[in-house]
Each structure stands twice: as structure tokens, then as C-alpha cells.
């Protein structure tokens, strides 16, 4: 009887892992499709993989767009026939216990070198969608001091502006 219970628990656990592995593969494909749509300037596919109110945070400190504001920013890039080209080097996907929300981090090969993306996906009535995305340029630790000096003057103005808001 004990061995039957162990077998049953093993099978239940195996089915659950398989379902989660399928979800991970599905979301991995969705994120790759999203990046591919940008490289092919497929604005409809790109934006349809995002929620209507999705947040996109770019590499510049001023780049924080929500919903239509991001679409308005991105559209001219897509209209030129090529937006941006990011391809996955590494990606990790995690789920909440209900498996209706996922968060991820990824390393990407881009025209800016290696970048890091991270974000949140939610399951909607029309499938999984990107609700929040953050893009950052990966900077090797040994170059942080030089980079900090390079951007210091520009950022000081922005810091003062943001403090006064």
C-alpha cells in the first residue's frame, strides 16, 4: 500500500512538473517571438504580445512608458522596417503558485552588446501577455567607474529635475 501511495505521489508530481515545464517553454517561445517581431518590424505581433497597459522601461533614465505612450514611441522605429534586434542568450522564468503570473530575467545579444531584460507576464483571457518589461545595458564591473564619469553631467541635470517634482 505504501509503495502505491509513493507511486501515485510520484506520478502527480511528474505531471505537475511537466505542466510547468510546458508553461516555461511556452513563455520562452512567446518572449522569443516578441523579440523576433521587433527585429522583423512586425508592430502588430509585437504589441499584441503585450497588455494594453504594459509598461516598458528602456535603458535611458527617462524611458518609462505605459500602454499607448510606448506604442507611440516604438511605431516610427517599426515603420522604418527594422525596430531593434535582440536575441536570447539566457533566460529564467518563474511562476506564482497559481501559475497565472510569471516573471523572468534574460541576457540578450543586441546592437548595444549584452543587455539584460526582465519583466512580468500575466495570463489574460486571450493568453499570456507581457505586462512589464525592463531593459538595461549590462556593464562589466571593471568599467562602472568610467561609465559613471561619462554620464555624470547629463544625469546631474536629471537628478535635480526629478528632485524638484
How would you describe this protein?
The structure is a single chain. By secondary structure, this protein is of the alpha+beta class. It has one domain (2-163): Roll (Nuclear Transport Factor 2, Chain: A), CATH 3.10.450.50. The protein is 46% helix and 32% strand. Strands 2-1-6-5-4-3 form a six-stranded mixed β-sheet. A hairpin with a 2-residue loop joins strand 4 (101-110) and strand 5. The longest helix is centred in the N-terminal third of the chain and has 38 residues, at 2-39. The chain is globular, with a radius of gyration of 20 Å. The relative contact order is 0.13. The model has no long low-confidence stretch (mean pLDDT 92).
Give a quick rundown of the structure.
With 165 residues, this protein is α+β, with helices and mostly antiparallel strands.
Structural class: alpha+beta
**Do you know the CATH architecture?**
Roll
What is the CATH C-level name? Alpha Beta
Let me know the largest β-sheet: 6 strands, mixed
Task: Give helix % range.
Answer: 40-55%
In total, the number of strands is 6
Give me the CATH fold name. Nuclear Transport Factor 2, Chain: A
- Name the shape in a single word: globular
Strand proportion: 25-35%
Low-confidence sequence ranges: none
- How are the strands of the largest sheet arranged? 2-1-6-5-4-3
User: How many structural domains are formed by the residues?
Assistant: 1
Topology as a string of helices (H) and strands (E)? HHEEHEEEEH
**What kind of oligomer do you see?**
single chain
* Euclidean distance between termini CA atoms: 68 Å
Number of helices: 4
As a whole number of angstroms, the C-alpha radius of gyration is 20 Å
Amino acid at each position: 500500500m505504501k509503495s502505491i501511495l509513493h507511486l501515485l505521489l510520484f506520478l502527480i508530481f511528474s505531471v505537475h512538473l511537466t505542466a510547468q515545464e510546458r508553461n516555461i517553454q511556452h513563455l520562452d517561445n512567446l518572449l522569443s517571438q516578441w523579440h523576433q517581431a521587433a527585429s522583423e518590424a512586425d508592430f502588430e505581433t509585437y504589441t499584441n504580445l503585450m497588455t494594453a497597459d504594459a509598461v516598458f522601461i528602456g535603458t535611458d533614465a527617462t524611458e518609462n512608458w505605459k500602454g499607448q505612450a510606448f506604442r507611440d514611441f516604438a511605431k516610427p522605429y517599426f515603420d522604418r522596417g527594422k525596430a531593434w534586434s535582440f536575441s536570447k542568450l539566457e533566460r529564467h522564468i518563474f511562476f506564482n503558485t497559481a501559475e497565472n503570473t510569471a516573471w523572468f530575467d534574460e541576457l540578450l545579444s543586441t546592437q548595444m552588446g549584452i543587455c539584460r531584460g526582465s519583466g512580468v507576464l500575466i495570463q489574460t483571457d486571450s493568453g499570456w501577455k507581457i505586462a512589464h518589461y525592463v531593459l538595461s545595458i549590462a556593464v562589466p564591473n571593471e568599467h562602472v567607474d568610467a561609465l559613471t564619469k561619462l554620464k555624470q553631467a547629463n544625469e546631474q541635470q536629471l537628478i535635480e529635475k526629478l528632485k524638484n517634482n
